[in-house]
Write a structure and sequence with these properties.
The complex is a heterodimer of chains A (153) and B (99). Chain A has 153 residues and is mainly α. Chain A contains five helices and one strand. The longest helix of chain A has 31 residues. The chains are: A mainly alpha (153), B alpha+beta (99). Chains A and B meet through helix 1, helix 3, strand 1 and helix 5 of A and helix 2, strand 1, helix 3 and helix 5 of B.
Chain lengths: 153, 99
Amino acid sequence: MSPALDPQEAARQLAGLDLSNAELARRAVAPWWYHPALGVLIGGLLAVQAAPLVYRALYFAVYGLGLVLLVHVYRKRTGLWVSGYRAGRTRLVALAAVVVSLAVAGASAFVALTRDLPAAFVVGGVVVAVVVTAMGPLWEIAFRRDLADGRRP
Amino acid sequence: MTPQFDPVIHANNRLQVCAMLAPVDEVEFAVLRESLNVSESVLSKHLKVLEDAGYLGLRKATAASRVRTWVALTAAGRRALQGHLAELRRVVTLAQAAE
């Protein structure tokens, strides 16, 4: 309870939150190449399964380094960091990307192993890259809508 | 969420800080300062009050030989903010109902 709290002041403070939300929405925009790069990195994880073990091992190092660089650039450009799996519409978008990617990976592995067709991993990798790339902007739209709703996990 | 007035968060700049931190994991000090349009010393004082209350944590990270301070809301800070916002909405709703 707050018997001394002025209703007009409370209303002003609540209205002021829209400004902070707008500021976050303005800043939380990744560079145009961020999501394609993330898509290529993640899709590459699947595609490289068609390659010999040594190349797969090398790619894991590239993948790890790439992720570190992407996070670094995002932080530097936006001045903030937000988990892809934060509560709200954003989590639904992120989980949808994970589910679709895992389904594609499973289907690729099935085809590659049962039909002796390693190229299926490459095709699956390309599909995953496209899915992740497409989900990135959708995630940002979901984030802005969450902010507009005042959803604060 | 139970409405709960919080005198620590109530100051306008501190409410804005908490509101900016709540939807994200971390925000850089310089971004908060720019967004609130306050000096470094003013923001530092507000952050200290919130930190002392256990509502946020500060982390220093060096990148390209430059030290950046990252600010994050704690779980206690999130709960306090949600309670305070609920209280603000309750007060406004009561006033509107009385009109």
